[in-house]
Design goal:
mainly beta, five-stranded antiparallel beta sheet, three-stranded antiparallel beta sheet, 1 helix, about 60% strand, elongated
Length: about 180
């Protein structure tokens, strides 16, 4: 089978705050051609529905062996208000699924060094709903002049039709502009 493709293996939210959300996309790139591919200058656009939520570049070089695969981790920073607004707009339209797409452009030296290759990947999948967090209990376990300890019990409600894993979760609190 001639051609190549890409598969998203994992989407990991590294940091979620009101300004910017940092996400890591783990992908597997497949090369079904009899020649290895070297990729430079990868730029990509991610869309949810018709809305562009990310436009970025990957600075590294990728080598994909002939008839082989290579993994890539794309660091993505998305403007949280645009992401949340897009998801809420689609939800308010009563949609339960939407097209998630990625358009990528890259150069492959030495043969196609000056002419970028274009790839379009699209999947129609369930609409992602942002999990809701509810404070169940808050208690002050220790109060000191330099350090204090709070015990926070949060309930996380996953409204999605798929499971989500929460690992290494941390909560940062601010009073005014100071992190506490």
């Amino acid at each position: 089978k001639m051609g190549s493709g890409a598969v998203v293996k994992e989407v990991r939210v590294e940091h979620f705050d009101p300004a910017d959300t940092r996400i890591e996309l783990k992908m597997r790139l497949e090369n079904n051609a009899p020649v290895g591919l070297g990729v430079d200058s990868l730029s990509y656009v991610l869309r949810i529905g018709d809305t562009v939520v990310v436009r970025s570049t990957y600075p590294g070089h990728l080598d994909i062996p002939a008839y082989g695969t290579a993994g890539i981790e794309l660091p993505v920073t998305v403007h949280t208000e645009r992401l949340v607004g897009t998801l809420k707009t689609l939800e308010s339209r009563g949609l339960d699924s939407v097209t998630y797409s990625m358009d990528a452009g890259f150069r492959m030296p030495p043969f196609w060094k000056h002419r970028p290759m274009q790839v379009h990947i699209a999947k129609y999948l369930p609409l992602v709903h942002i999990p809701k967090m509810r404070l169940q209990h808050l208690s002050l376990e220790h109060f000191g002049m330099t350090k204090s300890r709070l015990m926070i019990d949060l309930a996380v409600e996953n409204p999605n039709v798929f499971s989500m894993d929460f690992k290494e979760t941390s909560v940062h609190m601010r009073i005014a502009k100071d992190e506490v």
